[in-house]
């Protein structure tokens, strides 16, 4: 007998969401968070489904252009979508060269995303994590604060882990290329996220709805 409901989480972001430096677990902090949530009893595998849709060097504008198609092409009967966005490091660091994106332009793109995402499914924004370069880290922190204000304006949950990660020697020391955490940093980020109430609530499901 088919399951009536399939709770499904979509994680959108750049290479930090993709987990490019985690050589122990494909999917980086997203995969680690998914496992921690199961261990905490927030959902069951199966039917819980997680899509890591991070893409290298993608800005908030890039996410705005593609996220809805990514969700739509994975639709299936009984799917209950949840949308998480962790974006902004590419905007502020410009790792492919060129100039950082102006903060107001980054926010404009995020506002567009949230205007469509929030009515569609539970939506959570995670602050962009810190990087090694102090000047870039300050720009990312400023963007994170602006993202938090936007979420407060829109009544949406926001998980701010930038300051905690920047203060974590384990995380910062694990940025071998200055941008991407390795296994230790991804574990630290996942643990910090699960400890936040907005993330815990975003991941929690009604177990009775998951039964056949």
From TrEMBL:
Name of a matching Pfam family: Lipase_GDSL_2
Cited InterPro entries: Ester_Hydrolysis_Enzymes, SGNH_hydro, SGNH_hydro_sf
Signal peptide annotation: none
GO molecular function, one term: hydrolase activity, acting on ester bonds
Domain SGNH hydrolase-type esterase, chain residue ranges per copy: 11-185
Stored PANTHER family: THIOESTERASE 1/PROTEASE 1/LYSOPHOSPHOLIPASE L1
Protein name, entry field: Lipolytic enzyme, G-D-S-L
The organism of origin for this protein: Desulfovibrio porci
């Amino acid at each position: 007998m088919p399951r009536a409901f399939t709770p499904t989480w979509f994680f959108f972001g750049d290479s930090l969401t993709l987990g490019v430096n985690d050589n122990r677990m494909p999917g980086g902090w997203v995969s680690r968070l998914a496992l921690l949530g199961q261990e905490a009893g927030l959902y069951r595998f199966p039917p819980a489904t997680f899509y890591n849709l991070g893409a290298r060097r993608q800005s908030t504008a890039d996410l705005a252009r593609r996220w809805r198609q990514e969700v739509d092409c994975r639709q299936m009967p009984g799917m209950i979508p949840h949308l998480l966005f962790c974006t902004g490091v590419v905007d502020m660091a410009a790792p492919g060269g060129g100039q950082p994106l102006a903060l107001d332009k980054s926010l404009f793109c995020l506002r567009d995303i949230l205007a469509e995402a929030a009515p569609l499914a539970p939506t959570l924004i995670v602050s962009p994590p810190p990087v090694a370069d102090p000047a870039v880290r300050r720009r990312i922190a400023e963007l994170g604060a602006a993202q938090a204000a936007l979420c407060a304006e829109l009544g949406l949950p926001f998980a701010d882990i930038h300051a905690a990660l920047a203060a974590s020697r384990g995380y910062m020391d694990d940025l071998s290329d200055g941008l991407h955490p390795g296994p230790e940093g991804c574990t630290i980020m996942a643990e910090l996220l699960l400890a936040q109430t907005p993330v815990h609530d975003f991941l929690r499901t009604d177990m009775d709805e998951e039964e056949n």
